[in-house]
Design goal:
Elements (H helix, E strand, L loop, with lengths): L1 E6 L2 H13 L3 E6 L9 E2 L7 H10 L4 E4 L2 H6 L1 H7 L4 E2 L7 H4 L1 H10 L7 E4 L2 H9 L5 E5 L8 E4 L2 H13 L10 E5 L5 E8 L4 E3 L4 E2 L2 E3 L3 E4 L4 E4 L6 H21 L6 E10 L2 E8 L7 H4 L7 H10 L13 E8 L23 E4 L2 E4 L2 E4 L3 E9 L2 H14 L15
Parallel strand pairs: 1-2, 1-4, 2-3, 4-5
Antiparallel strand pairs: 6-9, 7-8, 7-9, 10-11, 10-16, 12-15, 13-14, 15-18, 16-17, 18-22, 19-22, 20-21
This protein binds adenosine monophosphate and glycine.
Adenosine monophosphate (AMP) binds next to strand 8, strand 9 and strand 17.
Length: 415
């Protein structure tokens, strides 16, 4: 089968690696990266140039296009492909609003009784400012639209909430995404990510994962796209899972149906396990990155069969099967990330990694050798009989790899 995967990070590398584990499909990737180019033909088209991606997919007669990142989904790439008669995996623009608009996501949660943080929505700075002055601290300020994962500010004081509101609503730090804000109650507890395949009627949750969003050990430093993950989360016990599946996961599909939205693709539930039970922080309309790098290696099914079942509406005939091993993914980032960093730094030692798979996030090939090409550079994933075993193997892999300025957390999986 001739497949195009849209995106170019570690998540896309994991998706392509997983597809190739089952069969030697003819895979292309737009734009891909250095590591992906070992498994797929990389084509230099930007995922956000949805016209160009759709035209290319049509011209090259792909049997299937998998759209992995948030922006092209929200911009309507799947809609465009579908109207060109191309099978595309991922939600339409309308369905992707569960991620693209936090105001819409909260509206769904409230209307359908999905447990979440209490909140208010504002489109007027003065009113928002007056409101936060009466809120207990900390309080959470969120830009409505997509903001590269940076549109959420946890504010310890009224002053910091006011400056977050000013940056988002007046200075338009995230552009139009800040026309509206959600101001919500701060929730406490461990966070867990649950991804699920959805064909519009049936929803099949995958095994849980835990992300590490802060840049440094001990959850210190600025937020990042994710510095490492492990799966499954021990905090996601059977009891918590039953509650989450009933009150959050199933209710979301029912809510979407009631709203007349047909959702086909992956839904990512970002949950906080509070003392009052699991509460939903947010939806993402796609696989997580680096969640995919620990969940997909544990999935025993042929990924393409599951994707086909989503497209055909036959997910009720699929049972997901899981490897009992634990997976750990350690992200190696460029020096300076998530702030400024340089690209083009040579990477060595990749061939010495023995007991881990290295998913490339931001790499390129230059003169036949790998160089860094992004903030998050590599995700080193290992499977083990328990978390210690998986950690040992993943970090043994990390220790073989060198690039100037590389930084990674040493505590992935310890919490
Ligand atoms: P989001 O993009 O909505 O997932 O927010 C990014 C991160 O901010 C989440 O992964 C949480 O760690 C944190 N966060 C978001 N909303 C809340 C909340 N209501 N209470 C506490 N932390 C939150
Ligand atoms: N790791 C979180 C995300 O993909 O948004």
């Amino acid at each position: 089968m001739k497949i195009l995967v849209v995106g170019g990070g570690g998540r896309e590398h994991a998706i392509i690696w997983k597809l190739k584990q089952s069969r030697n499909h003819d895979i292309y990737c737009a734009p891909g990266n250095g590591g992906i180019s070992e498994l797929a033909a990389c084509v230099p088209i930007k995922p956000t140039d949805i016209e160009a991606v759709a035209a290319y997919a049509k011209r090259e007669r792909f049997d299937l296009v998998i759209v992995a990142p948030d922006d092209p989904l929200y911009m309507g790439l799947v809609d465009k492909l579908q109207s060109a008669g191309i099978r595309a995996f991922g939600p339409t623009a309308q369905a992707a609003r569960i991620e693209g608009s936090k105001v819409y996501a909260k509206y769904l949660m409230k209307k359908y009784g999905i447990p979440t943080a209490e909140y208010e929505v504002f489109d007027d700075f003065a009113k928002a400012a007056a409101y936060v002055k009466g809120c207990p601290m900390p309080v959470v300020v969120k830009a409505d639209g997509l903001a590269l994962g940076k549109g959420v500010v946890i504010c310890e004081t009224v002053d910091s909430a006011l400056s977050a509101l000013k940056e988002i609503m007046l200075d338009k730090m995230f552009g139009e995404a800040g026309n509206r804000v959600v101001i919500e109650e701060y929730l406490e507890g461990p966070e867990v990510s649950v991804l699920a395949f959805c064909d519009g009627k049936t929803i099949l949750p995958m095994q849980s994962a835990q992300d590490h969003k802060r840049a440094y050990d001990g959850d210190k430093g600025p937020n990042t796209g994710g510095m490492g993950t492990f799966s499954p989360s021990l905090k996601y016990t059977d009891e918590v899972r039953n509650a989450a599946e009933e009150t959050i996961i199933r209710r979301t599909v029912d809510a979407l149906n009631a709203e007349g939205v047909l959702y086909k693709g992956v839904i990512f539930f970002g949950m906080m396990l509070t003392k009052d039970g699991p509460k939903l922080l947010e939806y993402n309309a796609r696989f997580g990155d680096p969640e995919a790098q620990v969940v997909l290696p544990r999935l025993k099914n042929d990924l393409l069969e599951v994707v086909e079942a989503v497209l055909n509406g036959t997910l009720d005939r699929i049972t997901l099967e899981w490897d009992d091993n634990v997976a750990v993914c350690v992200v190696m980032a460029s020096g300076g990330y998530p702030g400024k960093y340089t690209k083009g730094v040579p990477i060595s030692g990749l061939n010495n990694v023995r007991e881990a798979v290295v998913f490339h996030a931001g790499t390129a090939v230059k003169d036949g050798a790998y160089v860094t090409d992004g903030g998050r550079v590599l995700g080193v994933t290992a499977l083990g009989t328990d978390i210690q075993d998986a950690r040992k193997k993943a970090y043994a892999g990390v220790n073989e790899i060198f690039f100037e300025g590389a930084h990674y957390r040493t505590d992935i999986g310890l919490k």
